[in-house]
Amino acid sequence: MGTAAVPVLAGAAPVVTLVLVSGTVPLRGEAVIPVAGILVGGAMTATSLAGRRLRDELSARCGEVEAALSLGLLPRDAVLEVVRPAAATALVPPLDQTRTVGLVTLPGAFVGVLLGGGSPLEAGAAQLLVLAGLLAAEVTAVWVVTELVARGHLVR
Predict the structure, then answer these.
(1) pTM above 0.85, yes or no
(2) CA-to-CA distance for 47 and 66, rounded, in angstroms?
């Protein structure tokens, strides 16, 4: 159970740290909590999607892993041969969400800044920060899940 928290923290913590240290998000609760919550939530979703997809892929293609092992590949490398393409599919929902922001939906960070009295330019900048940070957190979380699965820590 604790191992599943590693990708979430590995995805969200560096991005939250970066936006705080750079001064992009002020070190105040009303600013930090929503941004950190969005990033942790995105990393959790990516972790869940990747973990499920990788488990299913390994179940369906276990023969390929065994074949790679019989050819002399290390266990980690044999698993990665099978799961890498599947890991990429866990990033499809966040990429689709990013693509439609502003065209189809009005995202929460944008609306929140506007309702809080910010200008449309400030709202757009905040939303861009959130989207870039969210993608970075999700990519990192998927990468860490893939490594944990390949090393046998999450799926045997």
Answers:
(1) yes
(2) 25
